[in-house]
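To assess whether the prediction recovers the assembly geometry, we first specified each molecular entity separately, as shown.
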Amino acid sequence: MATEKEAKPSPPPVNKWAPVLALGWLIPGGGHLFLKRTGRGVLLLVAVTGMFACGLMMRGAMFQPQSGDLLTTIINTGGFIGDIASGLLYFLSVWLGYNQPDVPGHVHDYGTKFLVAAGLLNILALTDAWEIVAGRKD
Amino acid sequence: MPKMNLTHFEAAFLFSLFTSVVMGVVTKRNDRDRLHYGVYVFVCFFVALFGLGWLMYFGHG
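The predicted structure of the complete assembly is given in tokenized form:
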């Protein structure tokens, strides 16, 4: 039985991780670029932006938060969170007038999933950037 | 913006590609492991894609 309590690594100060996460959210891979992980940052930028651009070109629909029954709330709010997790890509496309209604068809359906998945991949990238700032990864 | 009309296979290919790149980059601790894991995830996507495709084909009768 271990008698010594394992030292828990202390989280990094807010002024260290906040700009990294903010930049990484707004520009996919931006957190890694800011931390001088250029190769990984560029790969993340290309992959997330590529996924989002494919979603737009497939005319995927953006989610809007809706309340109602539980399933509707979860799907629409979760989808909205996934969409805005792409940061500037989402805001730019909305500000530039992208407003695709949800229409039937497998291409539109894939497009909607691509748009959400791009945001979810960006959340993974943010997690990785946070681990780098916290010193848990190189 | 141009419009893309993809088949199920093409869309699944692109999805697998982008996802594998990100999974490879964020998961491992050195470049060699990242590359291996990215390729592994991509192959897993394709095994699942073809496996489920054949399953649906035989299930449909």
